[in-house]
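Q: Okay, next protein. This is Intradiol ring-cleavage dioxygenase from Neurospora intermedia. I've checked the sequence twice, so it should be correct. Can you predict the 3D structure?
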Amino acid sequence: MAGTTTTNTITGNTNPTANLPPLLDLTIDNITPNTIRINSQASDARLKYLMARLVTHLHDFARETRLSSDEWMAALQFLISCGKICSDVRNEFILLSDVLGLSLLVDNINHPTLPGGTEGSVLGPFHTHDAPVLPNGSSMTSDPEGEPMLALCTVKDLKGNALPGVTIDIWETDSSGHYDVQHADRDAPSERCIMKSDDEGRFWFKGIKPVSYPIPHDGPVGKLLERLNRHPWRPAHVHFKFEKDGWDPLVTALYLKGDPYESSDAVFGVKKSLVVELGKVDKATAEAYGVKEGSWLLKRDFVLSTQKETEELRDRLAVQELEKLGLNMKLVDHLPVPELD
């Protein structure tokens, strides 16, 4: 009855029902606005906006494609399969987000690069939280088959000042193209570590020359790539994740120049500014860092921006894009919500 209240037996909250739409005789033409209207009871303005746009785009997708019942069920079964194959060391949903280009899109929106800054790349599904904390100069590999590589790196701000005390998470595959978590007999982390930049913003480590490898393609995402006639390969790379209070976190990677998959990465992670060419360790460097002369040498200066700098740029870009779309929005905690005033 209009004007009455009911008590939610799950939460115990008393909610008015007088303004709810009559959810009867719903059709192709009115299902979308009615779904949005009933979801609009949410008190969280951002959640309300997200759900309204999600419902709008999902319903429009079904209308535009004339989605069949069989296709709809196949999509649901695909998502169920993604969930079933997930484990503590494998996340098929991150992989799905990666191959659809969504991971890179969301990262670019949330972490825009200021002029002179290091561009971001995809996190990927194989980052872990059990990497050992190692002092600078340590080896993070236990792979005797890998080609030794010395990495000499720095972390600076946009003005070229050294950034000490930055936490750097580093990981790569072994020489067979597998991350440690992909090995059933894994008993300890390998080809990964966490380091801190020193007083001069430097960090250095011993690893192996990265190799190309296929993303896991024995599950539903792999089958999807096969149906799309897409290969599952990623170019050789090393992952880096930088964190320091007051600074925008940076997730990025360095990719080897000339890799056969440099321009067709299965997860769209490669950017020209992140492509590097390895050198060779000379005699003086070999003696200074305790490695063999002739080993592979990776050198890179990473540049971070402050959290404030990144937020200001992100807000400016958000306003510009919203204006292009003709949307009357305001930013709350740097996220757009409808402007109702």
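A: Here is a summary of the prediction. The longest strand covers residues 148-156. Residues 1-7 have pLDDT under 50 and may be disordered.
Q: Noted. On to the next one.
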